[in-house]
């Protein structure tokens, strides 16, 4: 029997995963705390790269697992902003993030009016939704990559400029061609705000806070689903559909002015942990106005260049900048999260985009009543995001405390230990983020499957439902929206945790998958309803969600293992790059 390694042993410290059979493993902690992770954690044993005998062995980078005692860099806070300052920034970026969905949802009640005004079919108008969603899925890859390289603030200003130009053109829409082209440009300008906002949240918040911030950010953005159709219906009814774009133009100019005035740069390669002095375009205009004066405390973001904290290396924009986000699709845990979340998003998009047609056919609503009928869907998105945010924060805090007390550490962790920039490989992240996914998914599937039957009853003359029957499909829409957006919040939070420092890029990839599937769904939903009927259509969509549920199950059981494999692979690549530098750039094989 070998003796237990000590902290001084470079191959058996808290930077390495346990190899010695005598070491108390995480399996013991799982048993003591009632968890079962579905595999033996000893499978994640650390392996040092084996260098060529002819070359010296370079120092091997350590795995991102916290030390038993805080390291020097951990003595700095993750971010210097106060909780109030962080919440203020989340509100600002939430207002900016409104436009991606608002531009889509404010449009739905006006589709009939657009069809009549431009002398095109309702199906042709529906294609503008598809073109919008395609641009919404693709363009964040470009904006997000720029944002993770050049900074959040300048890309916000550039993307809003594109959005404003599109709205100017749409305010004078003379024909269908202008509508479909500039709707796509409108999406190109607004879609990036979601991914940039998620990048800002990752910049300023450690994992323990991130779940609540992301959920609240999503709830603010989802407010547009509640209010957008109501505004769209009123504007289209009294001022015509072009007034919708004039309204968006005025509102976006106000939000852009707010960003220029108040939003500081947060990208950690530029701003560090918020204590670096910002200059040029990265500095909010209000700080220039208050230079040398005593302003409100909540506006005093960056005051010195001391204690800059963990400042990431500054990157250059290359072709690889735009290719790197797509490589995330090659990671099993990330891909499986995106596929399941993308299908849920597509089903919800099909419910939303078909609402105008189905409620008009079943209940004969005008534009104003149609706008009001979208309220349950919008309120559901807010409620679902808010509830799941609180649940994620509670779960993460509970598991973080259990991890701190677990006996598998070589030395006790301090009582104030918090998971910071890098999540330990042996921390049960999947449990912290996805423990509520099963019941949320079941409720989503049931609500979607029943939804079509509630609409099939309304126009059926043999059944003759009461006049208040419309309440049934609207309640189901509320449940579909609440559960689907809860899934989105869970999905976005864990994917952000898996890709530290790449918040905007990973959100852009998420958008690519979700909006790609959503655009496909929006394009086929009308034809599908016509072909098979409304009840079989939505029952089939519920069963389709059941069909992709195994992706979530696989991630639940093997996600932790895949995280470990990715970390070891990155370590080997880093060691090989280091050795390449030390040997004068000699090519390495294998």
Automatic annotation (TrEMBL):
Residue ranges, annotated region (Disordered): 1-20, 50-76
Membrane-protein topology: Multi-pass membrane protein
An annotated Gene Ontology molecular function: transmembrane transporter activity
Major facilitator superfamily (MFS) profile domain segment(s): 89-567
GO cellular component: plasma membrane
Skewed-composition ranges (Pro residues): 51-64
Subcellular localization(s) per the UniProt record: Membrane
Protein known as: Major facilitator superfamily transporter
């Amino acid at each position: 029997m070998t003796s237990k390694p000590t902290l001084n042993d470079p191959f058996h410290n808290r930077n390495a995963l346990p190899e010695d059979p005598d070491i108390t493993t995480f399996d013991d902690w799982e048993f003591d705390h009632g968890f079962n992770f579905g595999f033996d954690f000893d499978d994640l044993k650390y392996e040092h790269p084996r260098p060529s005998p002819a070359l010296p062995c370079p120092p091997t980078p350590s795995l991102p697992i916290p030390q038993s005692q805080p390291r020097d860099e951990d003595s700095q806070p993750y971010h210097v902003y106060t909780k109030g300052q962080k919440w203020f920034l989340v509100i600002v970026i939430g207002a900016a993030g409104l436009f991606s969905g608002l531009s889509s949802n404010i449009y739905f009640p006006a589709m009939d009016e657009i069809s009549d005004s431009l002398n095109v079919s309702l199906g042709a108008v529906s294609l503008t939704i598809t073109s919008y969603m395609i641009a919404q899925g693709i363009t964040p890859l470009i904006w997000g990559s720029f944002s993770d390289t050049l900074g959040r603030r300048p890309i916000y200003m550039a993307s809003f400029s594109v959005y404003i130009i599109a709205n100017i053109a749409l305010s004078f829409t003379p024909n269908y061609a202008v509508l479909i082209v500039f709707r796509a440009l409108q999406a190109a300008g607004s879609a990036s705000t979601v991914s940039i906002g998620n990048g800002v949240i990752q910049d300023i918040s450690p994992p323990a806070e991130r779940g609540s911030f992301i959920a609240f950010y999503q709830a603010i953005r989802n407010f547009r689903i509640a209010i957008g159709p109501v505004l769209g219906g009123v504007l289209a009814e009294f001022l015509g559909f072009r007034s919708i774009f004039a309204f968006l133009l005025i509102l976006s100019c106000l939000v852009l002015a707010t960003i220029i005035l108040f939003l500081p740069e947060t990208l950690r390669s530029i701003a560090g942990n918020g204590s670096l002095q910002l200059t040029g375009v990265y500095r909010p205009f209000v700080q220039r106005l208050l230079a040398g004066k005593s302003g409100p405390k909540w506006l005093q973001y960056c005051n010195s260049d001391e204690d800059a904290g963990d400042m990431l290396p500054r990157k250059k924009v290359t072709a690889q900048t735009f290719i790197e986000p797509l490589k995330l699709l090659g990671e099993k845990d990330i891909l499986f999260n995106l596929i399941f979340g993308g299908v849920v998003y597509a089903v919800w998009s099909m419910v939303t985009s078909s609402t105008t047609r189905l409620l008009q056919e079943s209940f004969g609503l005008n534009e104003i009543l149609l706008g009001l009928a979208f309220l349950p869907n919008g309120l559901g998105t807010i409620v679902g995001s808010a509830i799941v945010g609180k649940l994620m924060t509670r779960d993460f805090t509970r598991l973080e405390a259990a991890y701190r007390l677990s006996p598998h550490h070589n030395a006790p962790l301090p009582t104030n230990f918090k998971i910071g920039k890098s999540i330990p490989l042996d921390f049960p992240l999947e449990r912290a983020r996805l423990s509520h996914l099963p019941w949320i998914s079941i409720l989503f599937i049931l609500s979607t499957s029943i939804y079509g039957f509630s609409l099939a009853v309304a126009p059926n003359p043999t059944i003759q439902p009461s006049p208040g029957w419309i309440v049934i499909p609207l309640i189901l829409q509320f449940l579909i929206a609440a559960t689907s957006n809860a899934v989105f919040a869970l999905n976005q939070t864990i994917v952000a945790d898996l890709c530290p420092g790449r918040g905007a890029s990973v959100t852009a990839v998420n958008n690519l998958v979700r909006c790609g599937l959503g655009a496909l769904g929006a394009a086929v939903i009308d034809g599908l309803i016509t072909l098979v009927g409304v009840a079989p259509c939505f029952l089939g969509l519920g069963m389709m969600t059941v069909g992709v549920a195994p992706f979530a199950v696989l991630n639940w059981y093997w996600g932790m293992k895949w995280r470990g494999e990715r970390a070891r692979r990155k370590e080997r690549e880093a060691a090989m790059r280091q050795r390449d530098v030390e040997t004068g750039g000699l090519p390495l094989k294998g």
